[in-house]
Amino acid sequence: MTHLELAADHGHPVAQAPAADSPLAIRGLTVSYGEKPAVFSIDATIAPGSMTAIVGPNGAGKSTMLKAALGVVSPLSGTVTVFGQPLDIQRARVAYVPQRASIDWDFPARVIDVVLMGLSRELGLLGRVRDSHRKTALDCLSRVGMTDFAERQIGQLSGGQQQRVFLARALAQEADLYLLDEPFAGVDAATEKAIIDVLKSLKDQGRTVVAVHHDLSTVTEYFDHVFLINVRKVAEGPVETTFTSANLQDAYGGRLGTGQIEELALAAG
Amino acid sequence: MLVDALTLQLGYNATLVAIGAALLGISAGVTGTFLFLRKRALVSDAISHATLPGVCLAFILMATLGGDGRNLAGLMLGSAVSAWLGLVCVQVISHKTRLAEDAAIGAVLSVFFGFGVVLLTVIQTMSSGRQAGLDGLLLGSTAGMLYADALIIAAGGAITLALVLLLRRPMTLVAFDPQYATSIGIDPRRVDMMTMGLVMAVTVVGLKIVGLILIVALLIIPPVTARFWTEKSANVVLIAGAIGGVSGYVGAAISASAPALPTGPIIVLTCFALFVLSLFLAPERGVLAAFLRHRRFQKRVHLRQGLLALAQQQPVYEPLTRRLLAREGLARPDGVPTEAGKARAAKALRDERRWQVVHRLPEYEGAASLYDGLRDIETVLTSDQISEIDATIGGPKGVTA
């Protein structure tokens, strides 16, 4: 149990054994680009069926934590279990929505082609794209309000529309755990509403949603759980008990004015 | 003569070369597409230059063992080994050190090629080396192509094509969004290695026909050309294959139609001609289309601005705007609106108001995204929808206090 030893080494209280029913359980996760850890000895137990915001200042390791959970970056130490098993076994139940800025939108693809990528597993290497697949893709597009855009080249989309296409691709995977990296970054109000509506409907279906989120003012409105991080874990739990001024102070230090913190925490209380 | 060549009437050797070059062109174009989409086109340059030492060492080995140093299969095997080594060097340098991939490519390309040239000189001093004609592999030399050579090229090309077909989905996914690909269980590094392996196979197969220096052109120009004609990655693959195939076939035929025309360079020039045609003439992404679109757009903007100015009784000073309004019969040359101009101006202003409403209502988002300040609203919305919008604006009103 290396992760337990590691946690103990760093003076953490030794974490409880990974909860078997947690959609995403992280133990002793450390990731480093170069010599400075981006996240350090993180433990997280995401509650089943919750909507969890990962919140912290810039450079706090929010995206890194998500990427490490998915194996997109390889950790220096730590373990990740998904629904109680290693990621590779449960990968089909996980859908990831990367930051939209991470790709080149001049790539030769139409909107529907991108959504069809969400069906890669089903299609396999040689399977033909059938009408049923196309219908699934169109359904997913309609859930994010993008049906009219199916045949458009992706380069013609606005930022918010790109984000919704990415979400539609994840929806096509019919996953039980959705991990989103800054889904609300730089999007218009209509998109923000469309995305949050979809995420809430996922939660209503009993699925789990975890999103890196940078807008503190909407945490209480959008999410029921919060994970505060600043390289190290600051706090984790339901918004009402965790999104407190003390915890925000710990995560953000001097970066937020006291008045601002009080205000946000009051909104949560 | 060229017609004879194109219809394969120019004899056995020319026919072999033309068919071989067409097959090579198809597999190079198709494989190169994934390199292009992954934005790693230049890696193929490192791979191809890295084949040279392997070719030379294979020749030396086969000659010293008493065999025929020019055996194509042996030379191809040697080139594959050293190309792989070069590729591994690029990967290691760019992943394990702080050097970027372009630096790694430059270093590997020049060092391997330099070493190869030294070996070529050594071969010249060997007794069996003088007639080797290994320098023909630099730029391709099809004069003495054997039936067995053609078979090897055809088989290699066919296998490469089959593998591309098998790997097209993961390769496309990794090229578009490697992070997402990882999240669904595809390892981008492995897929990249397979892509590079295919590029290497094409390079090796192409040694005899276009040579190791020019194969890069056959890998890169077809996809770049194809991209002008389509917005779908699957079509880029198909069109690139077609362009590569046509270039190979036509280029080989042209070079066979006259003595002393080198095959490889002529194939590449044929390919380049197709590129230039596409660059200028492609309907959406071509230079000419872009220029015409810009001019047309500029005129429409001027006309629209002119109409909106007329509607608000502002004078129009811009010479182009005045000229356009006059030409359309919407205003007199001195800028005074005609009856038709007044009507169109009123409509333009009304449409602006309608668009404002469209932008406000989420159910019209698809339509709103088409707004460019110029488009007639009737082309986007049905008349029912327009009257609905008009209801929210209200009819023409008198001025109220």
From TrEMBL, chain A:
Q: Which domain of life is it from?
A: Bacteria
Every copy of the ABC transporter domain together lies at 24-256
Which keywords are on file for this protein? Answer: ATP-binding, Ion transport, Nucleotide-binding, Transport, Zinc, Zinc transport
Q: Name one Pfam family in it.
A: ABC_tran
| GO terms, biological process | zinc ion transport
Q: Name one GO molecular function term.
A: ATP hydrolysis activity
- Report TM segments: none
List the PROSITE patterns: ABC_TRANSPORTER_1, ABC_TRANSPORTER_2
List, alphabetically, the PANTHER family matched. IRON TRANSPORT SYSTEM ATP-BINDING PROTEIN HI_0361-RELATED, METAL TRANSPORT SYSTEM ATP-BINDING PROTEIN TM_0124-RELATED
Family under the similarity heading: Belongs to the ABC transporter superfamily.
- Which protein are we looking at? Manganese/zinc/iron transport system ATP-binding protein
UniProtKB/TrEMBL annotation, chain B:
Cell compartment(s), UniProt: Cell membrane
First-listed, main subcellular location of the protein, grouped into a coarse class: membrane
InterPro entries from the UniProt entry: ABC_BtuC-like, ABC_TroCD
Q: Does the keyword Cell membrane apply?
A: yes
This protein's membrane topology, according to the annotation, is: Multi-pass membrane protein
Q: Which keywords does this chain's UniProt record carry? A: Cell membrane, Membrane, Transmembrane, Transmembrane helix, Transport
Q: Kindly list the biological process annotations in GO that this record carries.
A: cellular response to iron ion; response to zinc ion; transmembrane transport
Annotated membrane-spanning segments are 12-37, 49-66, 72-93, 105-126, 146-167, 198-221, 233-254, 266-283
Q: Which Gene Ontology cellular component terms are annotated?
A: ATP-binding cassette (ABC) transporter complex
| Keyword Transmembrane in record | yes
Q: Which family does it belong to?
A: Belongs to the ABC-3 integral membrane protein family.
Q: What is this protein called?
A: Manganese/zinc/iron transport system permease protein
Classification of source organism: Bacteria, Pseudomonadati, Pseudomonadota, Alphaproteobacteria, Rhodobacterales
